[in-house]
Amino acid sequence: MVVTLRTEGVDQPVDISTASKCLEPSNGGFKVHIPDNPVVHAQQALAKSGNGIHLGVNTDALLTEDDRYDDCHIGGSGAERAATAWLSILLDNSHLEASK
Fold it and tell me: Do residues 25 and 65 make contact, with C-beta atoms less than 8 angstroms apart?
């Protein structure tokens, strides 16, 4: 996706979430979340790769079990918490300066 954006001349920063938590057994999940997992490693590696990619909200750490309606998907309170965290990041222009 980022390569496509850059090819099209879009040079704005891209922020990605750290999001891997899904404890729902029907989705292949486990009842214990392991924060140090391959999905998180891939998300962190993208941010370290340069090309204007930065880490955004870590929903794994931010949200509680009450913020997910089925131990996987974000519910109303989780959406509000994540949106507030994203707003804080997006209003903070310091990551824009780091991209230049």
Answer: no
